[in-house]
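Design job #97: recover the sequence.
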């Protein structure tokens, strides 16, 4: 039987994070600004946040991936040095790792001896099982930034479409809420399903996603409404 595992996990993670933020933040902002009743101001503010947020998310993902790559290279050099300079200590660490899975030292010894004959594989073993650091792929940083930035842009533009279609702010607001409600539920369900969740777990994810979006929108609307009707 072929095992089922999620592929392209990092790309999916970047898309989910970008889309979730894009769907929630601009939606909450436009709901808040709708309390002012000014359609032009709402569209300008929403688009400004949408594009600046997309660039910020993309750049943040890119820098995070660069940092991961630098960390991997630093730890790789350190492990290479330790294998050369303190091999006895590294051997004991391999024993500790192998024995933690059940075998005793005598059983693990043949594997350890074979492993330590190849220093490249020895270091790889330590990176994978001692430090638990995955080797970043060559183009991860660029594509991570692009994926997250575009996902944010795509998620954020959806709640704004009704404001371009309707001249009445409140008609657009109610339509945007309805559209976003459906998208939040579908997104919450599908993102859990793609990561292998059960139907019940996916349903709970949909409810959580909807609740977070509703809370953000309600808070934004309440803040803008309160300030607009205050003496400030």
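Job complete. Output follows.
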């Amino acid at each position: 039987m072929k095992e089922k595992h999620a592929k392209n996990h990092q790309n999916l993670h970047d898309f989910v994070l970008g889309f979730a933020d894009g769907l929630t933040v601009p939606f909450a902002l436009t709901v808040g600004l709708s309390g002012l009743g000014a359609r032009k101001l709402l569209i300008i503010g929403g688009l400004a946040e949408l594009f600046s947020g997309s660039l910020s998310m993309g750049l943040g993902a890119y820098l995070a991936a660069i940092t991961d790559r630098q960390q991997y290279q630093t730890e790789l050099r350190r492990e290479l040095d330790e294998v050369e300079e303190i091999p006895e200590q590294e051997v004991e660490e391999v024993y500790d790792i192998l024995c933690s899975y059940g075998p005793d030292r005598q059983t693990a010894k043949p594997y350890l001896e074979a492993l330590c004959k190849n220093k490249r594989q020895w270091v790889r073993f330590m990176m994978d099982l001692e430090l638990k650091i995955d080797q970043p792929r060559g183009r991860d940083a660029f594509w991570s930034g692009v994926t997250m930035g575009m996902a944010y842009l795509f998620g954020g533009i959806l709640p704004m479409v009704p404001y371009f279609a309707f001249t009445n702010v409140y008609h657009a607001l109610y339509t945007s809420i309805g559209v976003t409600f459906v998208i939040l539920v579908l997104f919450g369900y599908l993102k859990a399903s793609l990561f292998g969740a059960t139907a019940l777990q996916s349903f709970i994810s949909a409810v959580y996603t909807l609740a977070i979006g509703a809370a953000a929108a309600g808070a934004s609307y309440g803040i803008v409404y309160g300030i607009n009707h205050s003496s400030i």
